Amino acid sequence: MTPTLDTIRNCLDGAIPATIATCAPDGIPNVAYLSHVHYIDNQHVALSFQFFSKTRENVLANPYAAVQVVDPDTAAHYRLALHYLRTEAEGPLFENMKAKLAGIASHTGMSKVFKLRGSDVYAVLAIEKVPGVTLPPPLRRNHLAALRAASQRIARCADLSSLLDETLLTLEQQFDIHHMMLLFLNESGDRLYTVASRGYEHSGVGSEIRLGEGIIGVAARERTPIRITHMANEYLYSQAARHGVAPCDLEKEIPLPGIPQSRSQLAVPVQLHGQLRGVLYVESPQDQRFSYEDEDALVTIADHLALTIQFCGQAAENDGGGPAAAQADAVSGKTAIIRHYAADDSVFIGGDYLIKGVAGAILWKLLHEHTQQGRTEFTNRELRLDPTLHLPDIGENLEARLILLQKRLVERCPFLRLEKTGRGRFRLRITQPVQLAEAT
Question: Which one, out of 136, 161, 334, 355, has a CA that is 20 to 30 A from the CA of 108?
Fold first, then answer.
């Protein structure tokens, strides 16, 4: 079978350095090692431009090159005939290569040397397999079968809460991924907040990261998958999340979940009609854990997820009949002081931070109406129509904030509960006396 780029993508992950041969106008050849060959599509690759070398000089004068890559599993060698087209110094391709190169540099101890200046885009004219002895290919996961099972499970979900749980569960069961999180874009469009996670000691629900920071933030800002096969310190989201946070804000910061040594990372934007909705992120303590096939599969899952999220958000806006009859909760114990700070709608239970932003505003509204009117039954629709909450037009954002609030209450406040009672309906349950205080 004639090799094509999609059949040799395993050679393009940087596990074994490639070599590049170019020729000067006077006919003198030059051969050098190459840090990274990046797969764009079945007809194009991008090569890393790090400094103005003889290779760079030759390509600009004579836009043809030969690159030899090696399959790290079988030791098969392939020779690519390339034609230089252009250099990109910003945008999704550049950021993708920059992140991957950072992982390679960190792995090889060359972080101070490997600094990407541009992504040189080439057309692939021909691919030739170099004769030689090779090893048998290793057994690989059937990604197509796993993707089919994941898509079927996602399609069966009728509400956002079960959709989030099922998506992460199926990634674990079908793709053998054990550390993951799903983040949604906030109302102002400048941050992502964690709405679900799996495999961590602490869920990190409600934790935030800015667009452009860490692998998650870069994937969101550039609207492109970012995959790193070796640890890259500058892309660790836990460090990026704390960068620039004022000391007075740290008491309101929920730590992002994470593993101590995240050596492989993959962040995939969740998009619908060209609009960013969130990011699906997975990580592993193993080097080179996530392949191009994993990236393809997660991109497909993210697209399916975006459509289903919209459906669930729209369904939650429609009341599904009256709530089931509820018995009054027994209230006992010491009175809990719940403080609200209007500046950012942050809510504290006693002296402990609980939540802020839209979720904080929602909780304060529910508590206020409960203490004044005795209400316990509420609907998504009435929250949507409340102008004081400043909710965006995206329906699933409200549902996501309610899920976030529900999970934070379970983790941090055992005497307060939000309980789903039907489609678009929920109940506030309080089992301890509370006193509301508006703080300044």
Answer: 136
Query: Where do the DSSP E strands lie in 173-320?
Result: 179-185, 191-198, 208-210, 226-228, 264-272, 275-284
Interhelix angle 214-222/92-108, nearest 10 degrees: 160
Over its C-alpha atoms, the chain yields an Rg (Å, rounded) of 26
3-state secondary structure of 140: coil
> Helix, strand, or coil here: 83?
strand
pLDDT of residue 103: 62
Long-range contacts of 148-156 (CB under 8 A, 24+ apart): 149/174, 150/174, 150/175, 150/297, 150/301, 151/300, 151/301, 151/304, 154/301, 154/304, 154/305, 154/308, 155/304, 155/308
Taking a C-beta distance cutoff of 8 angstroms, is the pair 339, 347 a contact? yes
Helix (H) or strand (E) holding 339: strand 336-341
Tokens representing residue 44 in the block: 């194009």
Pairwise CA distance, residues 211 & 202, whole Å: 23
How far apart are alpha carbons 225 and 179 in whole angstroms? 17
What is the rounded CA–CA span in Å between residue 260 and residue 134?
Answer: 37
Give the pTM: 0.86
| The Cα angle at residue 348 between residues 342 and 353, in degrees rounded to 5 | 110
Please, which residues have CB within 8 angstroms of residue 49's CB and are 6 or more apart in sequence?
Answer: 56, 87, 116, 117, 118, 119, 120
Q: Quick one: 221 exposed, middle or buried, by C-beta within 10 A (0-12, 13-18, 19+)?
A: middle
Q: What is the DSSP letter of 403?
A: H
Contact 415, 350 (CB under 8 A): no
Phi, psi of 46 (to 5 degrees): -125, 140
Residues 305, 183: contact at Cβ < 8 Å? no
* Cα distance between residue 150 and residue 173, in whole Å: 9
| pLDDT tens column, 300-311 | 999 999 999 888
- All residues at 6 or more sequence positions from 251 whose CB lies less than 8 Å from its CB, including other chains: 353
CA dihedral defined by 92, 190, 352, 362, rounded to 10 degrees? -130
Condensed to tens digits (0 to 9), the pLDDT of residues 361-379 reads 999 999 999 999 999 999 9
Q: Which residues lie below 8 Å from residue 148, measured CB to CB, with a gap of 6+?
A: none
- Do residues 67 and 17 lie in contact, with contact meaning Cβ atoms separated by under 8 Å? no
